[in-house]
Specification:
mainly alpha
């Protein structure tokens, strides 16, 4: 079951957007995904090509990044 976002978007996505330096709209668009990918690659969490698509490599790299912050 998917969680509906409000008209102002997702609070979690807004925080991610702030972290990676794009406008915090609360909606994950291609620009936001590219920013996440650049962020991850710069932090040495290889997510592959910066292409704006939230694929397997990007998801795994994001999970590794989050897990590194929980230690």
């Amino acid at each position: 079951k998917f969680v509906k976002t409000s008209a102002t978007g997702s609070a979690m996505v807004k925080e991610i957007q702030k972290l990676v330096g794009v406008k915090a709209t609360g909606k994950m668009n291609k620009e936001s995904v590219k920013a996440v990918q650049k962020f991850l690659n710069n932090k040495k969490f290889n997510c592959g090509t910066v292409d704006g698509y939230m694929g397997t490599k990007t998801i795994k790299a994001w999970q590794k990044y989050i897990n590194s912050k929980l230690k």
